[in-house]
Design goal:
α8 links the parallel β5 and β6. The N terminus is likely disordered. By secondary structure, this protein is of the alpha/beta class. It has one domain: Alpha-Beta Barrel (TIM Barrel), CATH 3.20.20. Helices cover about 35% and strands about 15% of the residues. The longest helix has 20 residues. Strands 1-2-3-4-5-6-7-10 form an 8-stranded parallel beta barrel. The chain has a two-stranded antiparallel sheet with strand order 8-9.
């Protein structure tokens, strides 16, 4: 992944984050305090710059609700979860998406959310946990108020190198989705850009969607990583309507499509969100993987993104 200056966050950075929090677990649930710290972007590579199309389909509607993926402020979450949530709410966000609970119990997390008039419709949970016993994951989700359980990332060792492997992975996600839905929740998968690296003439993301049950496996499309991978999100919305209830919102700038705060880049948000009903979007989560390294830090980034999105009409 790249920050605003274009310098990559290294795998060692991710390992350090895991090491720092790896022993912290929810006392009541046993869930790792780093439910999605393994989520990180694939290495930067050259991608064709996507030129935004003219805005169309504007209705004057506002984008609501506006949420934030708390991975963006993970350094602050490590220090003080309650204070971080309070500050997020003060900016104006009404929803958050968790990436670990930082050694707090589900009941404690729920109390912090209630105190700040926040809701948490979704959480990122690593694949290895989703393939195990979901009892504690589900119990925590229901206490906190999650509606969606999201698989956020695949380590290189978990990714298929053949079309058949991606077909099989679609079946794996369907099995997880069946168990999650059986508990009254919805399962979703979050993309980066590696899912768009072709195997021959085949796009793995296409194989994944075509070989997973659409009622059991929804998508949280990361609009930045789809763009970085040379994709037009609208093409996916049209081909798989209603399958994208969650989206990650972060912008791209420059020839290398470096990650930046929303409104500071070249992605045409009016064009994309004009098709929100076709996509089935219900929740919009601002995210910036390396916001802490940019001007203004993580809170500066999510404030700028919120201000842009809260004023946007489509």
């Amino acid at each position: 992944m790249s920050n605003d200056a274009g310098s990559p966050r290294t795998p060692q950075d991710r390992r350090s984050f895991l090491t720092a929090l790896g022993g912290a677990a929810l006392a009541a649930s046993g869930i790792s305090a780093l439910a999605c710290a393994t989520k990180a972007a694939s290495a930067n590579r050259e991608s064709a710059t996507t030129v935004p199309s003219p805005s169309s389909g504007a209705t004057g509607a506002k984008i609501r609700p506006i949420g934030v993926q708390l991975y963006t402020v993970r350094d602050e979450m490590q220090k003080d979860v309650a204070a971080t949530l309070a500050r997020v709410a003060q900016i104006g966000y009404t929803e958050v998406e968790f990436a670990g609970y930082f050694n707090h119990s589900p009941a404690e997390i729920r109390a912090m959310l209630d105190q700040n008039h926040l809701t948490a419709p979704s959480a990122h949970i690593p694949l290895q946990m989703l393939q195990g016993d979901l009892t504690q994951v589900i119990a925590a989700a229901k206490t906190i108020g999650h509606e969606y359980i999201v698989c956020p990332w695949l380590d290189p060792s978990q990714r298929g190198s053949t079309v058949d492997a991606w077909k099989s992975f679609g079946g794996t996600l369907t099995d997880i989705g069946r168990r999650v839905q059986g508990a009254g929740l919805q399962f979703a998968y979050h993309n980066h850009d590696f899912e768009f690296q072709k195997i021959g003439d085949v796009v793995p993301f296409e194989v994944l969607l075509a070989n997973s049950d659409p009622s059991l496996v929804k998508l949280e499309m990361d609009l930045y990583w789809a763009t970085k991978g040379g994709q037009d999100p609208l093409a996916w919305f049209a081909k798989y309507p209603g399958r994208f209830p969650l989206v990650h919102v972060k912008d791209a700038m420059g020839a290398n499509l470096d990650m930046t705060s929303v409104g500071n880049g070249t992605i045409d948000w009016k064009r994309i969100f004009a098709k929100r009903e076709l996509a089935g979007i219900k929740h919009y989560f601002v995210e910036h993987d390396n916001a802490a390294e940019g001007p203004g830090g993580a809170f500066g980034s999510i404030t700028a993104s919120y201000n842009y999105l809260s004023a946007l009409t489509v």
